[in-house]
Amino acid sequence: MAVEKIAYVIEEIGEIFVLGVKTIKTVFATRPEFSQISYQMVLMGYQSLTIVLITGLFVGMVLAIQTAYTLAAFGAKLYIGEAVSLSMTRELGPVLISLLVGGRVGAGITAELGTMNVTEQIDALRSMGADPVKKLVSPRLVAFLLSLPILVLIANAMGVIGGYFISALELDISGKFYMNHVFRMLKFNDVFSGLGKTVFFALFVTLIACRNGFKASGGADGVGRATTSTVVLSSITILISNFFLTKLFLLL
Q: Crossing angle of helices 138-169/34-44, nearest 10°?
């Protein structure tokens, strides 16, 4: 039983890897379909703005409160700006937004492609000589690779703003003092490492979602199972890969 499970996992990873290689080759070998990419960016990016703004703002506010409470015991409450900005840009912003937006986007991709698969629309594309990877996967991958870093940047900014509000309204720290500490400590490498992670997260989520959509079978019930699998597997992949990416970017 254990051997079968290991073989199944290896097969799953292999299929996702093969799809990734085909998709990346297609992206660089063919002319981009800008209309499809822009349409997908609206679905993935613009329609995710509300959840990104709310998440970034309140995570920053909670982080400021918890940090102030902890640092006050050491007489270091004045360093709240550094703690909020570094935590948001390096870890919390990329990971939380990738989990939330990735779950939403991945579920949508799998549901859409899964429905197309069970209704034999993807087979119809192949019969007409069209490449499903080029038509369905490549635009979604490029769109999410462009959208996710922008959404994370917005969330990071909202987190810093949330910390600003808490500092000024509850902690008696002037807004100017708070922002000076934010920009004094925050470096380009901190922002780059967080955004660099989102490129990998977007790649993983899109490939997992598309692969599950292509493999969906059994009608609506099968599409539902594939969608659930996408959300779970994407979340686990983001959390595990975040550990290794964190160690990688710390070495750069």
A: 30
Measured between alpha carbons, how far is 185 from 17 in angstroms, rounded to an integer? 39
pLDDT in tens, 115-166: 999 998 998 888 888 889 999 999 999 999 999 999 999 999 999 999 999 9
* Residue 35 CA, distance from chain mean position: 22
Q: Are the CB atoms for 56 and 159 separated by under 8 Å?
A: yes
In 3D space, the residue among 152, 101, 120, 75 whose CA is nearest the CA of residue 217 turns out to be: 120
Closest CA to 217 of 117, 113, 67: 117
Sign of CA dihedral 122, 17, 222, 33: negative
For tokens 């594309």, name the residue. 125
Q: Number of helices (H) and strands (E), helices first, in the chain? A: 11, 0
For the whole prediction, is pTM greater than 0.90?
Answer: yes
Using alpha carbons, select from 105, 99, 84, 85 the residue that is nearest to residue 42.
105
- pLDDT digits 0-9 by tens, 176-233: 888 888 888 788 888 899 999 999 999 999 999 999 999 988 888 889 999 999 999 9
